[in-house]
Amino acid sequence: MKIFVTGVRGQLGHDIMLELEKRGIGATGVDKEEMDITDAEAVDKLISAEAPDAVIHCAAWTAVDAAEDAEDACRAVNALGTENIAKVCGKLGIPMMYFSTDYVFNGTGTKPWKPEDEADPLGAYGRTKYEGEQAVRKYVPKKHFILRLQWVYGINGKNFVKTMLRLSEDHKSLRVVDDQIGGPSYTPDIARLSVDMILTDRYGTYHVANRGYCSWAEFARKIFELSGKDVEVIPVSTEEYGAKAPRPRNSRLDTSKISESGFEELPMWEDALRRYLRELSEA
Q1: Within 10 A of 169 (CB to CB), how many other CB atoms are there?
Q2: Dihedral of the CA atoms 24, 92, 84, 104 (nearest 10)?
Q3: Rg (alpha carbons) of the chain, rounded to whole number
Q4: For residue 283, pLDDT beyond 80
Q5: Which three-class secondary structure string do you get for the chain?
Q6: Is 125 a catalytic residue?
Q7: Which residue(s) pair with 232 in the sheet?
Q8: Is residue 165 packed enough to be buried (19+ CB in 10 Å), middle (13-18) or exposed (0-12)?
């Protein structure tokens, strides 16, 4: 079996390539230097030449605030780029895996969002990622996996955990948002499940996150506790903190479809964080 993976220099793509290698599964990995996903002809030519058994599409525009001022550029990557890949997968008759986001929901209420709940995207980022979902469903109607993720962190690239640890070096206190609730998600855990899925035909839309919920402030406190940092976390509201792009306050994702479909759910988020901090210390 051979898998074609995009976005391999990002957090998730990096760990998916490691997971495939660990299992002895052949993989071709590309990033924007090797394949511009906004170039339909280049995408068709490269993927067709590789003739993979499946595509795992990790490449994405993830700068949420920047997307508000550059929605067309964001759309070119998240929607049109995804459509280009989906068209090739449909033409070749192969499965496609696409990673979406909790931002496809409006973040109201407190009830965890189910995969079948109606989307109501927040901001430019959420809109373009949802348009990517629609392209996958249109062009790969029978053989797709759509995995909605949130609060992702891993060894490769920037993330909230690394930011908190960096700021702790010269700050005794930090203001962190306390009214946005979600599930921190560790990329090696996501990668394991993603590869489990791509080897099956249990297609559909899934919500994927490490189990359990917390606020960003609670997440920060746990980071400092586990890393032995003496930093006070000062809880603030979304409005007090201020950000260009709207953020969903309720990002709780119902992940029960994972186990209902016969896959192993991700571990608790605290367990994942402990493993990540250990990984960072050994890097």
Answers
A1: 8
A2: -70
A3: 18
A4: no
A5: CEEEEECCCCHHHHHHHHHHHHCCCEEEEECCCCCCCCCHHHHHHHHHHHCCCEEEECCCCCCHHHHHHCHHHHHHHHHHHHHHHHHHHHHHCCCEEEEEEHHHCCCCCCCCECCCCCCCCCHHHHHHHHHHHHHHHHHCCCCEEEEEECCEECCCCCCHHHHHHHHCCCCCEEEEECCCEECCEEHHHHHHHHHHHHCCCCCEEEECCCECCEEHHHHHHHHHHHHCCCCEEEEECHHHHCCCCCCCCECCECCHHHHHCCCCCCCEHHHHHHHHHHHHHHC
A6: yes
A7: 173
A8: middle
Instruction: Give the integer Cα–Cα distance in Å for 201 and 189.
Output: 20
**Would you say residue 198 has pLDDT above 90?**
yes
Instruction: Report the distance separating Cα 56 and Cα 190, nearest Å.
Output: 12
pLDDT for the residue 255:
98
Q: Which of 227, 140, 153, 219 is nearest to 186 (CA)?
A: 153
d(CA 53, CA 92) in angstroms, rounded, equals: 9
**Size of the chain, expressed as the number of residues it contains:** 283
User: pLDDT digit string (tens) for 98-140?
Assistant: 999 999 999 999 999 999 999 999 899 999 999 999 999 999 9
276 CB neighbour count, 10 Å cutoff: 23
Strands 54-57 and 2-6: parallel
- Which pLDDT band, with edges at 50, 70 and 90, does 244 fall under? confident
Convert the pLDDT of each residue in 15-34 to its tens digit: 999 999 999 999 999 999 99
Residue in 98, 103, 125, 276 annotated catalytic: 125
Distance CA 92, CA 101 (A): 26
